[in-house]
């Protein structure tokens, strides 16, 4: 049978096949479908993904749009990663809402940008983001609805807030937009809107660069720090800073256009001011913002920053362009209306609050006026109006002492020096008088004080103003002297309460001192300053931070004389435990320089050093190696100070004369009752000044020989201990430090050694005699230790090669001493304990061995 | 290697001692010199000048000159006030001195004229230095101020009146006396380094006029010396160490002295008061309070030589060291006693003393004629000074004397003219002859044709 097959046909299934299909009903799992699709995606509280939400922002229903924005906020807050990944996409979509018709939507969007999107971004590339936004912001700024336009300004404000540099990219256009919106006199009814616009404008304008003079002058004084790039390589090329090209010249025109409009706005408020007795807060704020904007614009235009000068680095230094006034940019007519309105007054002033507000506005206007560099050409009536205001306000400030006034007067203070330079006659002294009052009476820790100090510095500083020490102007000189005289009391008043202010005062003092010619009134005033610091510890010196102390020390150099009282107070500073050793050294160094220049008398100078050495307290008394490192021991400082004093005194002049001069003082100190450490310091000083053979007088040698044995015994029994094996390296070194100066004395004078040996020998025989006597004069422990210590001293002497040679020549003394020891050991009827006897025996044996060794070695 | 000598002086009256830097041989000792710090200068290697320490009371200062081959002082000048710092420019044409009142005096060496004097500082000038192109003078003062003066401005009366101040820069950042200032290479773009008693050294930029670096040292630095490559500078301090501070390396603050200080040279001496370095920068010479002059090898940081300035037991401190190229006529000590040949003596007249006061401006500008010293230096710069009068006279003479030279030129010109004329004449002659020939032949031919035609007519 032939099967006919057709192509494309399937064979029917065989009849005997098993059906393997599984049939079942659909299984419905209780599961939320939305979540399952979006597994792993970030969703909002309502379960919508970012993508869906973004789509919804285009929804025709305003409520949906708003909800979508809220949802986006929700997502981004809870999943910050989403923002990182999709920020440009998100912004691209959201920017369309900037010009949204619905107010709530716009508000929500603003919130979203403000709270989430802008803060959430790192420092990465901001260019695309801003440019994405700006197109729509500009669009909205020209929107028909006023509300949308207002909001657009708010958005721009936000952008500037987070990316300040973006202002300069769009400055010209933005300023034009501001000009347009402010031109229409439409906000008198709704002042809050005007306020918000102006707030944004102020933010932009405050970004304008201004002349560094007004600000850095004050800054330099008070920080005192210079911006030194510490990590640069000096001869390297300057790092290429990616500078945004700021087309400042392009901004000038829109700024100039903006100025009359702002003045116009200001004028719009005038009727209100004249009609009502009370200035409400809203209009006050508006007025303030308007004036601030004008102030900022004037500051920029007057500063001349906008003129791009040729790179001054290329020019030789002498050809740098000087100050050129740029006031031509501001025509006097524009601001005239402002001047006419000044001073603002309420018709009936009832409340103090209103007065304060008006006062504040007046100060801002005054500041605008003073910022112009050509105000001194202004008509005299106008000038007087301002001067009167300044004088009055400075004076009232003093009377009322209100914080409010102080805060708002602050911006006027930097202009005082300029006023003092440019105005003349009666007004000058009136202004200076008022200023001096403020300077003296302001709270010492306030910023007012600091501003005043900066102004004073400018008026005293030689380079900054031509009026420095103008002998033709006795009034100014009087004020200058009054300021200088006030400084010390201010410093004492400040104490350690305001280091910033103290530093400013000291810097000013230093400047005055450096610049004051010798015998000028200034230098005399400066010299009299020291009388104020005679009080204990050089004023509040000790409690101030180290950098201020450094400044104070530097001031010392410039006193044309330093009297003993001040030196006395300096000694007590140096002895203060809290003062860093470094600064102690600095004080001594500066005094040395002052001495070299003849500012200190020799007697005062030496007594300073001697007092320092004799009063220096070394602690802890008990020397322990571990104490060295816990910061408590000042032994190192002691060593340091001693060496500095030695070198200072040795540099006074001719060695011989110096020695003669101080010999008696030093010997007296050594013979006096002072601790071992100070004795050591004086011995070192003596050795430094002395030569070989010694210049010590016979009397001094005798005197020293009385105390030296005691000193030596103290050293060997206190430092290092008798146990030579266990003594650490440190204590051996330290003992050497104490013994060495006396050894040097022995090198110089054999007679001294003789005498000392005699004294020690006599002590031993004293011990023997006391042993013989029935009544014990010394407790037995003391006897043995004295004898042992003498043994130990001799032992150390023998170890020193040079002393050993001298000892050889003093054979008689050594022999007697050994004999004495032997006597002591062999004497009958002594009540030496076994232990004592053993100790003495050991010392004797050791010495005997050494002495014999020597004899053998030399024979 | 060119022979270099070390000169050292001290504030005590111990003279100026002189050694060969490389061999250590001692040269002549110049007597009676008690120099002030920074008060020793070699005037272009021609002679030695030093400002002297005076009694506090004496109103006038003193500057002494020595010629190289005589130990005695040859010229004494008495400026109006004690001079502290003294410096000469590298050509030896000017000497600048800083006075105790803060004035700077500027003299012309050849005539001794006080060209200028100006009030530079509020207190005494402690150090002075010229920059490497000699156009700027940098001064440090006891008031802690470092100022940069442009000599162009100082001598430009018109511009000086316009300028608000004379100085180019005034650096105030030091709080105490400035002890030393040094400049690097690069004219007005160089760096300067200043040291002060406030324990800092500061590096400034001359081009930008600002502080580049502030280095705090453990002790007061009294002297600095710049490495010729400006990689490091050496700071001799009062604790007897010479610190090495980095200028051009990035900050490596693991040194135990402080930021930028990379090491020290020390030999437990007393305070280091002055530093100088050899021309190649490999040897550093330090003078110390203990009267020793130590020569250090900067590569190994070891001492290679020690000189003792003072004799006997007296330990006079050293306060100036200089390293200069050996002057030609400097005799080693051995030959110092041999009589100086009259010829050489003749060639070595020193310039006249420096004047005390500036001349009034109305004085005739060319009143003084001075024939400068014949420098015996081997490559003699043609530096004889000729007064303006002489020069004017010469010019006039040249103008009048146009005679011989001009005549020669004239003759030359006339000769060539004559030659040309002769040629011209010959040319004309030839032309005439040709013409004549032509005419003659024409005439002859004409007659001939005429005669030939005649019968035809």
Automatic annotation (TrEMBL), chain A:
Localization annotation: Nucleus, Nucleolus; Nucleus, Nucleoplasm
Signal peptide positions (record): none
Domain spans labelled TEX10-like TPR repeats: 482-827
Residue ranges constituting the Pre-rRNA-processing protein Ipi1 N-terminal domain according to the UniProt record: 128-191
Residue stretches spanning the membrane: 129-146
Superkingdom of origin: Eukaryota
Tagged with keyword Coiled coil: no
Pfam families associated with the record: Ipi1_N, TPR_TEX10
Keywords assigned: Membrane, Nucleus, Transmembrane, Transmembrane helix
Similarity comment text for this entry: Belongs to the IPI1/TEX10 family.
Protein's recorded name: Testis-expressed sequence 10 protein
Organism whose genome encodes this protein: Rehmannia glutinosa (Chinese foxglove)
Automatic annotation (TrEMBL), chain B:
Stretches of the chain forming a coiled coil according to its record: 381-408
Record keywords: Coiled coil, Repeat, WD repeat
Transmembrane segments: none
High-level lineage: Eukaryota, Viridiplantae, Streptophyta, Embryophyta, Tracheophyta
Keyword Phosphoprotein in record: no
PANTHER family noted in UniProt: WD REPEAT-CONTAINING PROTEIN 18, WD-REPEAT PROTEIN 18
Protein name per the record: Protein ROOT INITIATION DEFECTIVE 3
Species, as recorded: Rehmannia glutinosa
Repeat among keywords: yes
Spans of repeat WD: 118-151, 171-214, 265-306
């Amino acid at each position: 049978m032939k099967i006919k097959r057709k192509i494309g046909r399937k064979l029917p299934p065989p009849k005997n096949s098993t059906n393997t299909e599984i049939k079942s009903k659909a299984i419905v799992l209780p599961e939320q479908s939305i979540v399952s699709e979006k597994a792993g995606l970030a969703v909002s509280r309502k379960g919508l993904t970012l993508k869906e939400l973004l789509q919804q922002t285009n929804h025709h229903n305003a409520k949906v749009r708003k909800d979508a924005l809220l949802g986006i906020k929700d997502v981004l807050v809870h999943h910050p990663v989403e923002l990182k990944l999709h920020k440009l996409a998100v912004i691209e979509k959201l920017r369309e809402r900037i010009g949204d018709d619905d107010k709530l939507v716009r508000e929500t969007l603003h919130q979203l940008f403000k709270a989430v999107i802008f803060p959430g971004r790192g420092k990465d590339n901001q260019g695309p983001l801003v440019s994405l936004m700006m197109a729509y912001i500009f669009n909205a700024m020209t929107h028909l609805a006023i509300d949308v336009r207002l909001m657009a300004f708010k958005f721009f404000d936000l952008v500037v807030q987070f990316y300040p540099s973006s202002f300069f990219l769009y400055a010209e256009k933005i300023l034009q937009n501001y000009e347009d919106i402010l031109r229409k006199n439409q906000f008198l009814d709704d002042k809050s809107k005007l306020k918000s616009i102006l707030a944004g404008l102020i933010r932009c304008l405050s970004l304008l660069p201004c002349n560094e003079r007004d600000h850095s002058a004050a800054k330099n004084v008070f920080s005192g720090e210079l911006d030194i790039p510490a990590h640069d390589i000096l001869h390297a090329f300057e790092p290429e800073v990616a500078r945004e090209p700021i087309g400042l010249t392009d901004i000038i025109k829109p700024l100039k256009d903006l100025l009359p409009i702002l003045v116009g706005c200001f004028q719009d408020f005038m009727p209100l001011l004249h009609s009502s007795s009370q200035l409400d807060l809203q209009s006050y704020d508006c007025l303030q913002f308007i004036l601030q904007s004008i102030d900022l614009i004037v500051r920029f235009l007057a500063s001349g920053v906008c003129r791009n000068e040729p790179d001054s680095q290329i020019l030789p230094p002498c050809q740098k362009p000087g100050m050129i006034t740029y006031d031509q940019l501001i025509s006097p007519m524009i601001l005239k209306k402002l001047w006419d309105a000044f001073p603002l007054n309420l018709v009936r002033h009832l409340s103090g609050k209103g007065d304060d507000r008006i006062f504040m506005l007046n100060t801002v206007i005054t500041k605008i006026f003073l910022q112009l560099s050509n105000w001194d050409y202004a008509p005299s009536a106008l000038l007087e109006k301002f001067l009167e205001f300044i004088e009055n306000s400075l004076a009232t400030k003093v009377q009322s002492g209100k914080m409010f006034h102080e805060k708002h007067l602050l911006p006027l203070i930097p202009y005082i020096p300029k006023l003092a330079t440019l105005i003349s006659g009666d007004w000058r002294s009136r202004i200076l008088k008022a200023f001096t009052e403020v300077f003296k009476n302001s709270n010492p820790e306030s910023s007012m004080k600091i501003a005043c100090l900066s102004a004073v510095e400018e008026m005293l500083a030689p380079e900054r103003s031509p009026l420095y020490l103008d002998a033709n102007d006795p009034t100014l000189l009087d004020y200058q002297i009054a300021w200088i005289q006030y400084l010390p009391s201010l410093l004492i008043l400040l104490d350690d309460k305001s280091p910033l202010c103290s530093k400013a005062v000291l810097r000013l003092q230093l400047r005055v001192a450096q610049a004051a010619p010798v015998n000028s009134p200034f230098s005399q005033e400066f010299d009299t300053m020291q009388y104020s610091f005679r009080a204990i510890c050089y004023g509040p010196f000790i409690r101030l931070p180290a950098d201020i102390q450094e400044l104070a020390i530097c001031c010392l150099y410039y006193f044309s004389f330093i009297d003993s009282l001040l030196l006395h107070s300096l000694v007590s500073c140096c002895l203060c435990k809290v003062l860093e050793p470094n600064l102690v050294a600095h004080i001594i160094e500066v005094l040395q320089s002052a001495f070299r220049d003849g500012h200190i008398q020799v007697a005062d100078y030496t007594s300073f050093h001697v007092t320092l050495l004799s009063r220096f307290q070394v602690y802890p008394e008990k020397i322990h190696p571990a104490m060295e490192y816990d910061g408590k021991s000042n032994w190192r400082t002691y060593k340091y100070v001693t060496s500095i004093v030695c070198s200072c005194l040795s540099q006074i002049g001719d060695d011989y004369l110096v020695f003669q001069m101080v010999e008696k003082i030093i010997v007296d100190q050594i013979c006096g009752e002072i601790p071992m450490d100070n004795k050591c310091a004086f011995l070192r000083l003596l050795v430094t000044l002395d030569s070989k053979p010694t210049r010590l007088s016979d009397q001094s040698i005798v005197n020293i020989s009385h105390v030296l044995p005691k000193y030596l015994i103290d050293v060997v029994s206190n430092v290092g201990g008798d146990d030579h094996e266990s003594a650490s390296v440190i204590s051996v070194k330290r003992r050497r430090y104490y013994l060495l100066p006396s050894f040097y004395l022995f090198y110089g004078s054999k007679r001294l050694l003789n005498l000392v040996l005699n004294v020690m020998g006599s002590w031993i025989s004293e011990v023997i005699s006391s042993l013989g006597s029935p009544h014990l004069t010394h407790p037995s422990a003391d006897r043995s230790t004295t004898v042992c210590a003498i043994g130990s001293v001799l032992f150390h002497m023998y170890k020193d090669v040079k002393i050993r040679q001298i000892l050889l020549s003093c054979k008689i003394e050594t022999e007697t001493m050994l004999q004495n020891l032997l006597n002591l050991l062999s004497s009958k009827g002594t009540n030496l304990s076994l232990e004592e006897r053993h100790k003495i025996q050991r010392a004797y044996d050791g010495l005997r061995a050494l002495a014999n060794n020597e004899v053998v070695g030399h024979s | 290697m060119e022979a270099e000598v070390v000169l050292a002086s001290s504030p005590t009256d111990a003279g100026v001692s002189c050694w060969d830097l490389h061999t250590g041989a001692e040269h002549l000792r110049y007597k009676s010199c008690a120099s002030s710090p920074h008060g020793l200068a070699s005037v272009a290697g021609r002679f030695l000048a030093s400002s002297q320490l005076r009694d506090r009371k004496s109103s006038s200062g003193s500057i002494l000159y020595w010629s190289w081959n005589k130990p005695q002082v040859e010229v004494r000048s008495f400026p109006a006030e004690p001079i502290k710092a003294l410096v000469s420019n590298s050509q030896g044409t000017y000497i600048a001195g800083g006075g105790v009142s803060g004035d700077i005096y500027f003299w012309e060496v050849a005539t001794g004229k006080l060209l200028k004097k100006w009030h530079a500082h509020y207190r005494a000038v402690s150090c002075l230095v010229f920059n490497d192109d000699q156009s700027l003078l940098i001064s440090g003062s006891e008031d802690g101020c470092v100022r940069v003066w442009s000599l162009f401005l100082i001598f430009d009366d018109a511009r000086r009146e316009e300028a608000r101040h004379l100085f180019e820069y005034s650096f105030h950042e030091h709080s105490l006396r400035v002890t030393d200032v040094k400049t690097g290479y690069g004219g007005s773009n160089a760096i300067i380094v200043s040291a002060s008693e406030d324990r800092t050294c500061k590096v400034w930029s001359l081009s930008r006029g600002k502080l580049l670096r502030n280095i705090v040292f453990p002790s007061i630095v009294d002297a600095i010396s710049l490495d010729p490559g400006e990689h490091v500078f050496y700071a001799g301090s009062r604790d007897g160490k010479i610190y090495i501070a980095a200028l051009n390396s990035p900050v490596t603050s693991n040194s135990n002295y402080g930021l930028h200080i990379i090491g020290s040279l020390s030999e437990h001496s007393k305070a280091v008061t002055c530093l100088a370095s050899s021309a190649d920068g490999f040897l550093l010479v330090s003078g110390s309070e203990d009267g020793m002059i130590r020569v250090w090898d900067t590569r190994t940081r070891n001492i290679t030589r020690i000189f003792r300035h003072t004799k006997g037991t007296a330990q006079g401190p050293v306060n100036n060291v200089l390293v200069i190229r050996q002057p030609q006529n400097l005799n080693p000590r051995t030959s110092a006693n041999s009589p100086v040949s009259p010829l050489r003596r003749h060639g070595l007249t020193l310039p006249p003393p420096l004047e005390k006061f500036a001349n009034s401006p109305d004085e005739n500008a060319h009143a003084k004629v001075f024939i400068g010293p014949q420098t015996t230096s081997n490559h003699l710069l043609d530096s004889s000074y000729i007064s303006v009068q002489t020069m004017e006279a010469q010019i006039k003479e040249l103008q009048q004397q146009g005679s011989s030279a001009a005549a020669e030129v004239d003759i030359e010109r006339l000769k060539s003219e004559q030659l040309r004329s002769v040629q011209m004449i010959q040319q004309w002659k030839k032309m005439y002859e040709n013409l004549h020939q032509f005419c003659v032949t024409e005439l002859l031919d004409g007659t001939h044709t005429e005669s030939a035609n005649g019968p035809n007519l």
